[in-house]
Amino acid sequence: MEREISIVLCGEAGQGIQTVEQLLTKILKLSGYYVFATKEYMSRVRGGSNSTQILVSDKPARAPISRMDVLIPLDKEAINHVSTRLDRNTIIIGDQENLVTDKKIIHVSFLKMAEEIGQPIYANTIAVGLLLGLLNGDIRVGRHYLKDYFLQKNKAEFVSDNILALEKGFQEAKRLLKENLIDSKRFSILKSSAKLKNNLLLNGAEAVGLGAIAGGCNFISSYPMSPSTGVLVFLAQYADDFHIIAEQTEDEISAINMALGAWYTGARAMVTTSGGGFSLMTEGLSLAGMLESPLVIHLAQRPGPSTGLPTRTEQADLQLALYAGHGEFPRIILAPGNIEETYLLTQKAFHWADRFQIPVFILTDQYTMDTYYNIKKLSIPRGDIVHFIIETPADYQRYKLGSKDGISPRGIPGFGEGLVRVDSDEHDEMGLITEDMVTRKKMVEKRNARWAQLKKEAIPPVLSGTENYRILCVGWGSNYHTIQEALERLNRPDISLLHFSQVYPIAEDSIKFLNKAEQIISIENNYTGQFSQLLERQTGITIETKILKYDGLPFYADELAQGIKEVLEGKGGQR
Fold first, then answer.
1. φ and ψ at 233, to 5 degrees?
2. Is 272 in a helix, a strand, or coil?
3. Measured between alpha carbons, how far is 270 from 157 in angstroms, rounded to an integer?
4. What is 462-568's CATH number, 3.30.300.20, 3.40.640.10, 3.90.226.10, 3.40.50.920?
5. For residue 427, what is the DSSP state?
6. pTM here?
7. CA-CA distance, 129 to 122, in Å (whole number)?
């Protein structure tokens, strides 16, 4: 018996798939179900083929799977688009007259039913009602949610028509079940809990935004670039509530320089971008290194090079974040593994950037940004946020030498009697340009003296599974739950997962986990195994076996389980 139902909606951009996803997941969550949703979509406003997967479960669902229990195709190309994921058990529900396929289709005329209500647009709400009925959801919850959702921006008549559409879909589901066109056993195993209705339902973009707010962010300057734009939009929406300045700049160069200016005056600033946009920011990154300025950079990865696949996912910008910028200066790179970590590590990024006066990266990807599921809660910071700013004396030296950790007291203009000088050229303790070789040497050593403390405080990797492992799967960033679920499916007591949410610098005790394993398998969404290369550089341990995916899609848990199995049988690996 399945513990979860995998529903896939597929159709053209502009057909309202996201509306169905948003309505259904929230209604099901309020009905007491665990839900998980992720999407893949083409880079276009209209047309193409896009799909959304919704998992509904009686336990927390955290990873995508390739299996489709129910497919609702909304256009002629939909079935072909997801054909590799179809199997003989997939239930296809749609308008048989508009679909060309040799697959068995359970006929439901969404469009005709919608036109009977008044407009074709109601077909989406009918689909929501149908799925709610199949899953034995609460129709009363659905009515209340639709009323709240639509009444804010629509006339009462539009609200009542949508509720009618929901009820039509719900009744259609009951008809299909009653006439045994769909086996009710496929859906009856799901258990609900009233406690889940108070869960939070967040995606990665919202988690980054909330983490930034919790970290004291009061300034964001960015140029829109998928998949990072959601963070800018989120913070702009709540700018008045949390006293945030949200600036959409003319380009990425302006964005990073504006953020540096904001930090100089005492703000806590961030930029959000993707690989192509960050490429334009690299000179600004070096400027942060020379100024010893705090900076938070959210880098949401997508496949490259160049424009690549603008709306797909990949983990191929690790080396870009690691080596970007000319010269030598310290940085921290964080790569959260789930929604909760995304929130917490974004908050942490602002603290570390301010304290160590360095750039801190938050590496996510399209999969993280567009995936959401219900979580119990997020911890709200208690007490005031610690700011590492001093009131400057009259003889203030911005780059004062002498501290063991290389960190000089940071002042801001107008707070104290001192003059706060910063410069992109090499400078002395006062911040005045210098070409003195002795001073240059001292300043280079001062900037890089932070490394010792950064390594000491690095977040250690998390071991999932038995401590008596023989085989160790190594992952980083967004693959955390997918690898976890893959290992659960394999049910091998000799395999564990070591997950890194801080990928640079790596915690010093990481090597003990790696040395203990007889075999290490690196799992990454890129072609060259970028993180395994970094691990080798940091630890001296070479990882020979890799499972890599770089087609623009995330790993599916069932697909990955098979891949690990083949590796252990000597039949797979590397690509």
1. -65, -45
2. strand
3. 43
4. 3.40.50.920
5. B
6. 0.95
7. 11
Q: Are 33 and 52 contacting, i.e. CB atoms less than 8 angstroms apart?
A: no
- The CB density around residue 317, as the number of other CB atoms within 10 Å, is 25
Q: CB–CB of 322/534 below 8 Å?
A: yes
> Domain residue spans in the chain?
4-198, 202-375, 389-457, 462-568
Could you give the CA distance from residue 553 to residue 85 in angstroms, rounded to a whole number? 13
Instruction: Find out whether 34 and 373 touch, Cβ atoms under 8 Å.
Output: yes
Q: Which CATH number fits domain 4-198: 3.40.50.300, 3.40.950.10, 3.40.920.10, 3.40.710.10?
A: 3.40.920.10
Split the chain (575 residues) into runs of 10 and give each run's mean pLDDT.
82 85 92 92 85 92 95 90 92 84 88 92 93 91 91 76 95 94 79 77 97 98 97 98 98 98 98 97 98 98 97 98 97 98 98 98 98 92 90 98 97 97 97 98 98 97 96 98 97 97 96 96 98 96 96 96 95 64
Give the CA distances from residue 314 to residues 196, 247, 258, 347, 368, in Å, rounded to whole numbers and listed in that order: 32, 27, 28, 24, 10
47-57 vs 4-13, strand pairing mode: antiparallel
Element (H, E) at 178: helix 156-178
- Who's near 261: CB < 8 A, 6+ residues apart? none
* Side chain identity, residue 80: N
Identical fold for domains 202-375 and 462-568, yes or no, is: yes
Residues 6+ apart with CB under 8 A from 37: 21, 25, 52, 53, 54, 55, 371, 372, 373
Residue with tokens 């799967």, as numbered in its chain: 473
351 φ, ψ to 5°? -65, -50
Instruction: State the Cα–Cα distance between residues 182 and 106, nearest whole angstrom.
Output: 8
**Residue-by-residue DSSP string for 149-168:** HHHTTS-HHHHHHHHHHHHH
User: Which is it for the CA torsion 306, 308, 313, 315, positive or negative?
Assistant: negative
* DSSP E strands, 46-205: 47-57, 70-73, 91-94, 106-107, 200-203
The kind and range of the H/E element at 12 are strand 4-13
User: What are the DSSP calls for 103-119, one per residue?
Assistant: S--EE--HHHHHHHHT-
Class of domain 202-375: alpha beta
| Cβ–Cβ under 8 Å, residues 64 and 482 | yes
